[in-house]
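Sat 14:20. Reprocessing the chain from the morning session after the first attempt stalled halfway. Input below, unchanged.
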Amino acid sequence: MKKVVVGLSGGVDSSVAAAILHNQGYDVIGLTLWLMKGKGQCCSEGMIDAAQICEQLGVPHEVVDIRDVFQTEIVDFLVTGYSVGITPLPCSQCNKTVKFGPMVKYAREQWECNSIATGHYAKIRYDETTGRYQLLRAVDRNKDQSYFLYDLSQDLLSCSIFPLGELNKTDTRRMAAEYNLKTADKPESQDLCLVESNGSMRAFLDKYLAPKPGDIVDTTGKVLGQHDGIHHYTIGQRKGLGIAAAEPLYVIELDAANNKVIVGDSEARRRHRTKGTESECTVNRVNWVSITEPSTPIRAEVQIRYRSAPVPVTVIPLENDRVRLVFDEFQFSITPGQAAVWYKGDKVLGGGIIEQF
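Finished this time. Tokens:
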């Protein structure tokens, strides 16, 4: 019987992933990573639900304390990024360094097992022609999480199983009910675990960053209002600016050096060019996933945010794990610190982190 370590957050998705593999005859070991204290899927409440799922399935359940790793790799990473005016994406970083990497290490060292599984909505396929594991979008495009998994190495992909990749969310809920899992009706997690545990991103950041009042200005430098820290804002933000205006205003730049939030209307967004253009951007820390790094430019479709629509792009390889993305059309709200992930159809070709302009 083949062993598999299944990451259990206490949510319905990971519960069904464990149940599917258990019913397929796998020797399942449930593993919950203790990331932090408080509410949320990845914390104490989730641990209790995960333990009960394992008891229901009749499989062992282990908890591994990696709070120190989470603090260093995610909390400190986020705080540092926000403090200098970028909007870091924690999920891809967390998947690689906090979840998948430690899970594989635990499986190999503690259970002599080379397979892990999670409740992510994505698919993996081995391409015999190239000898590479390919990462693909899930069947359910509304739940597809391949964007957050672009940074997984070939070794991690080779060990991973995504039982939900061929399912729609309605199928997952139905199967949870059929398996009589206690998480079948558990509400969806709506935010980052850090947001859930702290109530809001503002509350989380306020625990680590002191207020630093400054000006909110338009593109001419005219002062329109005040802020209490640029870490409370992100590129493209429209709501919560606290400024009355005839037309909607958007954050178009965070000037960390001068502690200013620069805003403008839609036309000002298009005109603003102080730090580059939004017809292209540079991406660093690139991981080539389903293909090896090309030596010449390639055509692809790219997402610059999780919920953004894929758009046509030319990907130009640069030195030192960097690429330049040249968009066919002007893009609003290219945000330093967020991930850019490029696809060919459903196949994830590669991805990386958008650099500061």
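The two ends are 52 Å apart (CA to CA).
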